[in-house]
């Protein structure tokens, strides 16, 4: 077995650049007619290059505290392979909204638009994104300076919120601050207390993930709008108030981020829908999402239960099918919704989510922090709290004390 190496600039050029170049060429070809054979010929190259890079390069450089970097890299390699598979087999050329309707995309325009195709996950401005729900911003603007000012405030807010909820989770166990991790199901506690504790941590972990993904999204938006001159309209809101979800279909189909929707549906939903109809399409999409998240988790190098991680996503698909069965057979013509739908949705998520969050905790995912190990909430609390006060306890009170009343208030505004 080849020993993994800490990547240098030369390794990036040798192992990463060919992946980007090959995918870029496929991004050009997928916009042009009569290129199917060329795209299919290129398809095996990208998975082989991605496997070679993922199995050789160690972005933690042997430092266990940086092992999450491998998860990010391997996750990106998986989505790259999924994109390549989709682009190789697509029948109609991709068309961007800057191409006149009077004719096909020209070769020079295809080379230019390929960069945008590589950077988009929801296909905003492309014909292949039809059917992917996009949340419109409350205060839409075409001004880059105004948009960047808005983004800057979001980066600060979501960065602080992510750090606060992460530190609140760490206050449950000192091992959560370590790469070694720990279980959220404390065996020393009675069963009821054990699962209440696990539910509290899982609740905080969902908010932590929400803020972390938002922070990353707006950080990328700032770069792509300011440096690469993309339009603000290409970076609409990522979520649509997921706490208002009144069904699993509502949560996963519209309100949660849709960045993996198209690749998971294309690579998992379409094949199984061909074999088993609409139920196969639903389960296939969630199965592919589960496979992606399981690979990413295990890329950290600390194991992880495939059953727990994959089970969460598969059972989410089962829940969606149960909702459709309810609407068809139990209460014809009525969809799951309202306050009872809200209770159903988050009860189902909690039941299957606790084992998945436990795998995150065991893999040391709560030891992550903002770039550079920056911990702004602890620094701010040190300025206002007397010495000796338990900052972790204060953060738990702040996180629960702000988020729970917000959820209760939101229940009066359910659609």
Structure description:
36% of the residues are buried. This protein has helices at residues 9-29, 36-42, 45-56, 68-89, 107-119, 144-170, 191-226, 248-255, 261-298, 306-330, 338-362, 376-384, 391-411. It is built from 13 helices and no strands. Helices cover 64% and strands 0% of the residues. It has 415 residues and is mainly alpha-helical. The radius of gyration is 22 Å and the shape is globular. Helix 6 runs antiparallel to helix 7 (191-226). The mean pLDDT is 93.
Kindly state the number of beta strands.
0
Report the end-to-end length measured between terminal Cα atoms: 55 Å
Radius of gyration: 22 Å
Structural category = mainly alpha
Shape, please? Answer: globular
**Percentage of β-strand residues:** under 5%
Q: Roughly what percent helix?
A: 55-70%
What would the average pLDDT be, to the nearest integer?
Answer: 93
Which blocks of ≥5 consecutive residues have pLDDT under 50? none
Written as H for each helix and E for each strand, in order along the chain, the element string is HHHHHHHHHHHHH
Please work out how many helical segments DSSP would assign.
Answer: 13
Sheet with the most strands? Answer: none
Summarize the topology.
Layout lengths: L8 H21 L6 H7 L2 H12 L11 H22 L17 H13 L24 H27 L20 H36 L21 H8 L5 H38 L7 H25 L7 H25 L13 H9 L6 H21 L4
Helix pairs in contact: 1-3, 1-5, 3-4, 4-9, 6-7, 6-13, 7-11, 9-10, 10-11
Features:
415 residues, mainly alpha, globular
Short synopsis of the structure:
The chain has 415 residues and is an all-alpha fold. Helices cover 64% and strands 0% of the residues.
């Amino acid at each position: 077995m080849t020993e993994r190496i800490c990547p240098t600039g030369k390794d990036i050029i040798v192992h990463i650049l060919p992946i980007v170049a090959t995918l870029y060429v496929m991004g050009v070809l997928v916009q042009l007619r009569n290129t199917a054979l060329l795209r299919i010929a290129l398809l095996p190259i990208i998975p082989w290059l991605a496997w070679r890079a993922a199995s050789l390069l160690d972005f933690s450089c042997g430092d266990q505290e940086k092992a999450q970097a491998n998860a990010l890299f391997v996750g990106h390699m998986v989505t790259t392979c999924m994109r390549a598979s989709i682009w190789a087999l697509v029948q109609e050329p991709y068309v961007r909204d800057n191409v006149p309707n009077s004719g096909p995309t020209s070769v020079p325009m295809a080379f230019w638009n390929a960069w945008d195709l590589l950077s988009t996950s929801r296909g905003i401005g492309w014909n292949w994104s039809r059917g992917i729900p996009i949340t419109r911003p409350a205060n839409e603007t075409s001004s880059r300076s105004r948009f960047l000012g808005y983004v800057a405030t979001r980066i600060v807010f979501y960065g602080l919120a992510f750090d606060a909820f992460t530190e609140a989770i760490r206050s449950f166990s000192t091992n959560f601050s370590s790469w070694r991790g720990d279980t959220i199901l404390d065996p020393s506690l009675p069963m009821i207390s054990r699962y209440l504790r696990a539910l509290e941590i899982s609740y905080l972990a969902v908010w932590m993930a929400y803020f972390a993904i938002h922070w990353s999204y707006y950080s990328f938006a700032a770069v792509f709008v300011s440096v690469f001159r993309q339009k603000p309209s290409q970076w609409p809101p990522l979520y649509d108030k997921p706490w208002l979800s009144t069904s699993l279909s509502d949560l996963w189909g519209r309100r949660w981020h849709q960045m993996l929707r198209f690749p998971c549906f294309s690579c998992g939903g379409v094949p199984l829908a061909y074999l088993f109809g609409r139920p196969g399409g639903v389960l296939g999409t969630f199965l592919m999402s589960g496979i992606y998240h399981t690979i990413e988790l295990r890329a950290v190098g600390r194991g992880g239960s495939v059953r727990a991680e994959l089970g969460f996503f598969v059972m989410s698909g089962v829940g969606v099918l149960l909702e459709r069965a309810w609407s068809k057979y139990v209460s014809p013509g009525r969809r799951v919704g309202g306050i009872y739908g809200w209770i159903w949705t988050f009860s189902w998520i909690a039941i299957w989510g606790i084992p998945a969050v436990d795998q995150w905790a065991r893999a040391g995912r709560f030891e992550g922090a903002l770039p550079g190990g920056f911990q702004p909430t602890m620094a701010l609390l040190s300025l206002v709290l007397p010495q000796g006060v338990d900052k972790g306890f204060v953060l738990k009170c702040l996180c629960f004390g702000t988020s729970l009343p917000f959820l209760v208030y939101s229940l009066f505004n359910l659609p």
